[in-house]
């Protein structure tokens, strides 16, 4: 083959091969981006307002799922507030003081029943273990102090390779028997309940944590205390006017 023919063949090869290589690379990048997005939950848009859940969803919550969550307040309270949370979720940690303030203002007066549902997200490495620890604390009637302390110390244990010792420290801080907590955390029983709670999240088509329900009014993301107070007061007013509890 002459040098001219060899150069022509080389040029033709380059003209065909490199564009194909570039196109192939772009296709791979596009697939990876689509795959990444497919693993993300749809985040609420800024300014998204509350929505209303339908009657069948509310019936499923009341009759099937509410018993799975950790509740505080009277069972016959006129208004039920439900939160779906993840202990390692920063937004949930930010909302926790608002939820605690609401419980102090409304639960103790008998106006509201508050139910917390675990929904640990797979991208949070320690969220499930934290949920198990809180459930185990609940067996010693210390769920809410432990729950609040988990959120208060989230920035510490979330960064640890193994937060087990921190979870035991929280037990001491909240009056939980750490030996019993450790034994409970090693069992599979609490995890079974947590996994069952995921179905409650699916029932409401959960898009993000925290998600808060005031009756059948759904807030995706933690509402401010003022928004939460207004929703509760409106629901209480509706109950006074003869509306059925949600």
Protein model, in words:
With 246 residues, the chain is an alpha+beta fold. It folds into two domains: 1-40; 51-240, Glutaredoxin. It is 57% helix and 11% strand.
Compute the number of helices: 10
The CATH superfamily of the largest domain is known as Glutaredoxin
Distance between the termini: 85 Å
Name of the CATH architecture of the largest domain: 3-Layer(aba) Sandwich
By DSSP, the count of extended strands is: 6
Which series of helices and strands comes N to C?
A: HEHEEHEHHHHHHEEH
Q: How is this fold's topology laid out?
A:
Blueprint: H1 3-38, E1 51-52, H2 55-65, E2 70-72, E3 79-85, H3 90-107, E4 112-118, H4 127-138, H5 143-152, H6 154-157, H7 164-173, H8 178-185, H9 189-203, E5 211-214, E6 217-220, H10 225-240
Parallel strand pairs: 3-4
Antiparallel strand pairs: 1-6, 2-4, 3-5, 5-6
Helix pairs in contact: 2-9, 4-5, 4-8, 7-8
């Amino acid at each position: 083959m002459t040098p001219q023919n060899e150069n022509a063949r080389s040029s033709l090869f380059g003209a065909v091969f490199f564009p194909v290589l570039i196109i192939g690379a772009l296709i791979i990048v596009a697939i990876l981006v689509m795959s990444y997005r497919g693993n993300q939950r749809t985040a609420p848009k800024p300014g998204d307002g509350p929505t209303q859940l339908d009657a069948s969803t509310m019936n499923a919550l009341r009759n099937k799922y509410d018993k799975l969550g950790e509740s505080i307040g009277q069972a016959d309270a006129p208004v039920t507030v439900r939160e779906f949370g993840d202990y390692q979720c920063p937004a949930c940690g930010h909302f926790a003081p608002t939820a605690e303030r609401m419980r102090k203002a409304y639960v103790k007066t008998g106006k509201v029943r508050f139910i917390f549902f675990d929904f640990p997200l797979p991208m949070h490495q320690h969220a499930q273990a934290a949920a198990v620890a809180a459930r185990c604390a609940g067996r010693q009637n210390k769920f809410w102090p432990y729950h609040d302390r988990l959120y208060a110390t989230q920035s510490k244990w979330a960064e640890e390779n193994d937060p087990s010792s921190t979870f035991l420290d929280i037990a001491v801080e909240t009056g939980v028997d750490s030996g019993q907590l450790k034994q409970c955390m090693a069992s599979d029983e609490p995890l079974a309940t947590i996994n069952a709670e995921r179905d409650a999240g699916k029932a409401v088509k959960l898009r993000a944590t925290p998600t808060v329900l005031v009756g059948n009014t759904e807030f995706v993301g933690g509402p401010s205390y003022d928004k939460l107070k207004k929703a509760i007061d409106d629901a209480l007013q509706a109950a006074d006017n003869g509306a059925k509890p949600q």
